[in-house]
């Protein structure tokens, strides 16, 4: 059986969403048409508005509707501390943890020479300039602990240290609430090599 | 952290899709904005077109862009045989199995007095008229084997039998490839009560 063209077209278009295969797309389409045509129209409008309005902050490259995002403008944050992350989702995770009150720099990816993504593509040339110009006191590297993330962190370290910038990497180890038994080997190796000496309290 | 308004709005709008919670909606939003803005725009257009164009076939109530759908118009199908189903997704499933070459009638739901869905809401008055007017030879009830589906099938039987219409119900039992060990009790009960006597081949 062939679907009518605009139905087939919608099923196809829904597959642009991550994690949506042909069966889910079909279910979503039938659901929207049967029960939520208003929701479908609202979604269409939201998509168009978001694509039209949302760009990148000219300072941190995070998503924003403004020229400079709210975080970069916030005078209550520490403007001498920059945390480097791979994606806007990472910014959200850190913000939700409430553990950081400095500024961010979002790479929108990581170094990946095979895919043609070099330092310029992730904005590192402009970033270096900014760090030097603004006298940043510390750059915290929070790229993912993957091969590409580590390579990116290594490149940044190499780029900033010669200029006397203080650079740090977030700690990797056993997650809180994680049971040692279920933690993978490389995490455990990180946990051991990154161990800290405990001191007797004074 | 607050999202920028059009980003928050898109995350919210995506939740109209079945099976999409706040976390998936956030992931979808960031994915579309980071990597597939074209796909996002195409999806917006597809949604608008589908909602604008797709209505119900005036004969079988299935989704179509035409006044009467392709199946109802198809002269190669048996126009004296009607299969009654609950949703357009059910039509798809039957069509994909290739096991039926008659016409359909899609209830777009089932009888559910609690939700105010009576015979008129699922089009049964018009259906009865059509069955009698067109001299339909057999009505096959393929509503779901749920309480509401069974009640709907029962209502249809009760409505059509007095007029001398031949009415049948699809068989329920152990699915092919299903192992008896894992089949639920009520399916097994159906399978036993619906057993057929085997005859020696002539």
From TrEMBL, chains A, B:
Keywords: DNA damage, DNA recombination, DNA repair, Metal-binding, Zinc, Zinc-finger. InterPro entries: DNA_Rcmb_RecR, Rcmb_RecR, Rcmb_RecR_Znf, TOPRIM_dom, TOPRIM_RecR. A zinc finger (C4-type) spans 57-72. Residues 80-175 form the Toprim domain. It holds the Pfam family RecR_ZnF. One of its GO terms (biological process) is DNA repair. Signal peptide: none annotated. GO terms for molecular function: DNA binding; zinc ion binding. The keyword RNA-binding does not apply. Belongs to the RecR family. May play a role in DNA repair. It seems to be involved in an RecBC-independent recombinational process of DNA repair. It may act with RecF and RecO. NCBIfam families: recR (TIGR00615). This is Recombination protein RecR. The lineage of its organism: Bacteria, Pseudomonadati, Pseudomonadota, Gammaproteobacteria, Cellvibrionales. The gene is recR.
């Amino acid at each position: 059986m062939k679907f009518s063209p605009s139905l087939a077209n919608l099923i196809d278009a829904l597959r642009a969403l991550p994690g949506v295969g042909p069966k889910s797309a079909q279910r979503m389409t039938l659901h929207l048409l049967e029960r939520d045509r208003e929701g479908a129209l609202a979604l269409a409008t939201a998509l168009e508005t978001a694509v039209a309005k949302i760009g990148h902050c000219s300072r941190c490259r995070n998503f924003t509707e403004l020229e400079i995002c709210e975080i970069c403008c916030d005078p209550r944050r520490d403007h001498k501390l920059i945390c480097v992350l791979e994606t806007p989702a990472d910014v959200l995770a850190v913000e939700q943890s409430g553990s950081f009150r400095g500024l961010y720099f979002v790479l929108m990816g990581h170094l990946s020479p095979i895919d043609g993504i070099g330092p310029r593509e992730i904005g590192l040339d402009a970033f270096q300039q900014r760090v030097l110009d603004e006298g940043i006191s510390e750059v915290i590297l929070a790229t993912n602990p993957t091969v590409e993330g580590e390579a990116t962190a290594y490149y940044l370290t190499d780029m900033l240290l010669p200029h006397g910038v203080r650079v740090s990497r977030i700690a990797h180890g056993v997650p809180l609430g994680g049971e040692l038994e279920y933690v993978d080997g490389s995490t455990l190796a990180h946990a051991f090599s990154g161990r800290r000496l405990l001191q007797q309290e004074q």
